[in-house]
């Protein structure tokens, strides 16, 4: 086995991929098989470098400004030049001029003072449409000059010995550095005018923040409109001839929509899935870094929970459970899910009021209505149980499969079939593949916007617990009373098209997840450019 040149924890200089610049890095680990070092830059970036791209700090020692000796030929040349040099009439006497060596020394000293302090800013990744300028943390506050807030800056004081290296291998181009220095000076003048101007400055930055979904009016419209839209679709499907010509559908009595037994069944389903999530099976992985550098741990046992749920449902069917109840009380179950999601959203918002500022969502705005909708706290947890991560995949996705299965049995009962229709089989099979794929690749959800950016509020609670199981099962619910015969050639063509789409879906999501976990790999192979280092 070849020996290592650098030890773990050693501070060295590492070359930035694709350039000739070397920055100070820390050795984290060494892969003996690939002979690559995992290093960490001062801004938190982790890369894998070859040994040839790493040099010790002693290789970048500062050169002395003056030399104690010179070659004889150089001394002779300087003397001959000084003797042949004539003084111009406008030049002042020699005694009145400052010696050149002292002037140069003063300039060098001034330059050293300027570069003794180097400012580094965490990398800014923007893989999505929304700006995520902090890993899983607070939003980027932009000021009037459109420069990110300086609270995220870290200052590293360099020794005078390494100031030459920091000047030669600066993290920003010279022109950009000069612009940022001018902006920093203007910014400091604005902030140092007094506490009143500082408060006005922060309020202006908060008010200028763009809110998603149309802000507060859009959030109110969504929270009121989505439940009504859900019931409208379900009532349309219950008609014999669902059409816009038969709009609006007949509305049922309001007292008939609520059933305590249906609400109890939904609550029981939720807590059974929570119990499966707490089982000590499956590996534990770390999420993306938080603002304070911590990484939350998540247990990946969603696929095991799906297998256990399948076994429990299969045993219940064997003992005489009638899943036709799900179809007959579908509206009541949907209302129960809506009520449960609203109660959960209220609990999440109230507990978020006592959460520390660094645990709040980057999407929160300070407005009560908007934060109730978008989510105020980023990672609400009860002990080690992460509520948002649990609701993201478990109750909704697995419940979607159970509802589809119930619709399959309901179709056979309503239409008097001995076997389900081919259309119902295709719907159940394709959607089952989607759910199993999501649970098998459960770790990929940790790099999605829902986990790293959005808080847990009404938007995600309603979407995970109501929209996914009751809207995504819409096709199967429709086929119960509206049979659609599909021929075998058409079924084969549909299956081939589905497989092509699934391959594209799986490959693109695998690449997206790989980029979210370690974007440095894409920089090194040239698939994308490194993110800008914003001041």
TrEMBL record:
PROSITE patterns, per the entry: STEROL_REDUCT_1
Top-level class of the enzyme under EC nomenclature: oxidoreductase
Transmembrane segments annotated in the record for this chain: 213-236, 263-282, 303-324, 330-350, 452-474, 486-505
Keyword line: Cholesterol biosynthesis, Cholesterol metabolism, Cytoplasm, DNA-binding, Endoplasmic reticulum, Lipid biosynthesis, Lipid metabolism, Membrane, Nucleus, Oxidoreductase, Phosphoprotein, Receptor, Steroid biosynthesis, Steroid metabolism, Sterol biosynthesis, Sterol metabolism, Transmembrane, Transmembrane helix
EC number: 1.3.1.70
Location in or out of the cell: Cytoplasm; Endoplasmic reticulum membrane; Nucleus inner membrane
Region (Disordered): 51-107, 129-175
CDD domains: Tudor_LBR (cd20381)
Compositional bias (Basic and acidic residues): 137-160
Catalytic activity: 4,4-dimethyl-5alpha-cholesta-8,24-dien-3beta-ol + NADP(+) = 4,4-dimethyl-5alpha-cholesta-8,14,24-trien-3beta-ol + NADPH + H(+); 5alpha-cholest-8,14-dien-3beta-ol + NADPH + H(+) = 5alpha-cholest-8-en-3beta-ol + NADP(+); 4,4-dimethyl-8,14-cholestadien-3beta-ol + NADPH + H(+) = 4,4-dimethyl-5alpha-cholest-8-en-3beta-ol + NADP(+)
Residue stretches making up the Tudor domain: 4-62
Pfam families assigned to the protein according to its UniProt record, in alphabetical order: ERG4_ERG24, LBR_tudor
Gene Ontology MF terms in the entry: Delta14-sterol reductase activity; DNA binding
GO cellular component: endoplasmic reticulum membrane; nuclear inner membrane
Membrane topology (UniProt): Multi-pass membrane protein
GO biological process: cholesterol biosynthetic process
Comp. bias intervals (Basic residues): 73-88
Pathway the protein acts in: Steroid biosynthesis; cholesterol biosynthesis
Annotated family: Belongs to the ERG4/ERG24 family.
Protein name: Delta(14)-sterol reductase LBR
Record organism: Rousettus aegyptiacus
